[in-house]
Amino acid sequence: xxxxxxxxxxxxxxxxxxxxxxxxxxxxxxxxxxxxxxxxxxxxxxxxxxxxxxxxxxxxxxxxxxxxxxxxxxxxxxxxxxxxxxxxxxxxxxxxxxxxxxxxxxxxxxxxxxxxxxxxxxxxxxxxxxxxxxxxxxxxxxxxxxxxxxxxxxxxxxxxxxxxxxxxxxxxxxxxxxxxxxxxxxxxxxxxxxxxxxxxxxxxxxxxxxxxxxxxxxxxxxxxxxxxxxxxxxxxxxxxxxxxxxxxxxxxxxxxxxxxxxxxxxxxxxxxxxxxxxxxxxxxxxxxxxxxxxxxxxxxxxxxxxxxxxxxxxxxxxxxxxxxxxxxxxxxxxxxxxxxxxxxxxxxxxxxxxxxxxxxxxxxxxxxxxxxxxxxxxxxxxxxxxxxxxxxxxxxxxxxxxxxxxxxxxxxxxxxxxxxxxxxxxxxxxxxxxxxxxxxxxxxxxxxxxxxxxxxxxxxxxxxxxxxxxxxxxxxxxxxxxxxxxxxxxxxxxxxxxxxxxxxxxxxxxxxxxxxxxxxxxxxxxxxxxxxxxxxxxxxxxxxxxxxxxxxxxxxxxxxxxxxxxxxxxxxxxxxxxxxxxxxxxxxxxxxxxxxxxxxxxxxxxxxxxxxxxxxxxxxxxxxxxxxxxxxxxxxxxxxxxxxxxxxxxxxxxxxxxxxxxxxxxxxxxxxxxxxxxxxxxxxxxxxxxxxxxxxxxxxxxxxxxxxxxxxxxxxxxxxxxxxxxxxxxxxxxxxxxxxxxxxxxxxxxxxxxxxxxxxxxxxxxxxxxxxxxxxxxxxxxxxxxxxx
Length: 789
Hints:
With 789 residues, this protein is an alpha/beta fold. The chain has 28 helices and 18 strands. It has a six-stranded mixed beta sheet, with helices on both faces.
């Protein structure tokens, strides 16, 4: 019976998205479990099951319409194709006239009690006094303590079944087996943030999960027993639909019109022949590889304008599926996409020439760690809390005042005083299987494969004297969601560690010889690879140049000067000011009261896979992920397939995360930062309880409570490659075709073998020519030929 229940619960829980902890805040689709259904149908079901909004509010459609972001011709065509004959203005007013139907949560007391118990059990070190019996698991610990919970009324230990399985059986015996799935889904969806975090703990096998186990069966057993005890509703309550079918269809139509308007605008921009990107036979003075992150688009434009520089776009984990052990706190965290299993572990090893400095660095680090620990203990321990706070309040007040008035100066001083770990240590890579190290070093074949894969995916042919792999991270103060601003491809970790590791591998002479002898990739002795980091809050680029030879020092010095100029022009562009823009960026990075130190990936709506010449002349306003790709160097399509299987799926996760956080910030987002309450170090709740927030806070998406900054649109992917090549990849990857057929993302292909004509994917490998108004779908015979191949 136990395995039977576990299997049914696991199957139902697939409709619940994972909730990621604050320290590794991964953007993912909260409705990932519904991606096997068409978007239209999936959100219709999700709307009813979660009681959530699934489309942009009418006021957002109004803003987009009045700002010219929705093309009238496109909107009218879609309206008429779906039988709506009246004017667009009429239907917009109809949407605006809809009033939300208020519903009563009959299980609100159950929700409150469950949130209380989960916060206590799942705590990861924030609480000074730990919940007893945690090592026995959630259900067992709760059972022994529930008799003291006044919210449950008078309860004896004999009244509570000894196991979660027994508790579920006692509740379910009064219901038909055909109702089981509906019951499980109803109660899992009641607190999707908390249940999503339980899923994350189960799937990630974290140290906390190993020490204090919890699973969804335990959760449901406690919840259903509590529901029964309080005379709540075990079966789902039938809720009146918040809107009729006509309103639902109209909202979908307005969304599609908005999305197609954005697509057409982007296609028109890319179809304009390049003027500034004419072929230049000169070897660049430096090449820089940035993450595909939308924030890289701005800094790439400004870096290229400062000299003879070439930039590339590549997923920010730089192709190394690794975990990284932090030298300061000793914690090992994932540093690659969650959908990728970590094959390696990277840690820091002292350079032979800097070992004399290691002792000083380690002592300083220990002092800082002890200072932070001491302050925390003094503030939190009951005997010292009041005296410490009273005694140190004056000094904290002065510090707070100075940091408020002189945040920019504070940031600059911290940067100058920062211990330069990268100058003393170098990254060291080891093989890892299920988080266990199995050998001291990885085979040369694997090192070569990592470096070659990077070159292949980007379509790299020549190498400049300086090649920078530029990871990215963010900097902010008093920001629980700070990791959401770090590299999404690195599981919300800074990309600097991956960048430094790839640079070290590419500088390895054994790797270079193998690339030359086996693959005819010739990297001359004049080329040096360097790790770097782009600070997305300040647009500063830090170069980790401790291993650069004297022969290249002047190149590095010149590049550093030009990157400072790029920072200045980029911040001026971003803040729309030409006065002290860098100081303003420093202020935002260090201001403890700043609700949005930067906008993160807000406004993301496109993913462009193609050569830099396709986008170099365009200001894409930070709305597009950019991945370098040259179809001419990828005759078998393997590189493109890798990009579509990995980065394209990850960007769809990110885009969906932003979409749902925007359309319903209360259910799928993070709510307002003003009333956030950090829970257990891993999450936030709104106020003093309730559901764990799973998405982005309101201030990361809206310019004000009513004015949007992020435009909630599904991702539009544009690839420059032959259409047939893309079709062949889709035939081999049913998951990708399913995402497209179900319209969780859109795909547009610019076919260079057909005069760069632009084709939009429709369904079932059908393509429409959108370079002009004619429909030019691929013939059925071509489709059948692909499928049978």
